[in-house]
Amino acid sequence: MTEEKKPHHRKKSEKEEKPSQPGPVPETDSELVEIPRSELEELRLRAGTDSEYREKMLRTLADMENLRKRLDRERKDYITYANQELLGEFIPVLDNFHRALNSIPRTESSGPLLDGVEMIRRQLEQVLQKQGLEEVEAEGQPFNPHLHEAVQVEATDSCPEDTVLEVIRKGYLFRGRLLRPAEVKVSRPLSVNPETDE
Q1: What pLDDT digit, counting tens, does each position of 47-80 carry?
Q2: Three-state SS at 167
Q3: Domains assigned to the chain
Q4: Is this model's pTM higher than 0.85 or not?
Q5: Cα angle: 101, vertex 107, 109; to 5 degrees
Q6: pLDDT for 135-161, tens place per residue?
Q7: Which residues of 80-113 are buried (b: 16+ CB within 10 A; e: fewer)?
């Protein structure tokens, strides 16, 4: 038995020595591999196609990110300005309150009625202001075509040119957006009469 083990042991050591002996190098370890030209062209086409797909994927991802940002912005705007249309419909109601208060002369008998109407108007304005409605500042301000609409002009030298002299109909903003421009009377300089200069 001991004799059989020794040869077996020797064979093992011979096998271990074989790989260390110089011999042919496998093809996978070589630096240069010859492939046919058609296969090389096919590999180049695949590499180009992969690069093209990668660019398309990156462009698509960028488009998706831009779309997500735009939808998020639109959603926030929608939430912020959702009540704009409803508040716009309350503006004529406010106008009617102002007309009613200005048209009824204040007397002893109409005083309590006017006070009640005035309280209701103030309460309505407070509710609308809480929702984001604000009045456009106009009287005494320089004329701003983005906020004011000039419906009358008055020649005067009491103030600078293009100053709002009077508000004919109030204008309103909703959270910074113009709902309705203020209709105003604007100042113009007194025109010089050529006959008086001579």
Answers
A1: 777 777 788 888 988 999 999 999 999 888 888 7
A2: strand
A3: 84-194 (2.30.22.10)
A4: no
A5: 100
A6: 998 888 888 889 998 888 988 888 888
A7: eeebeeebeebbeebeebeeeeeeeeeeeeeeee
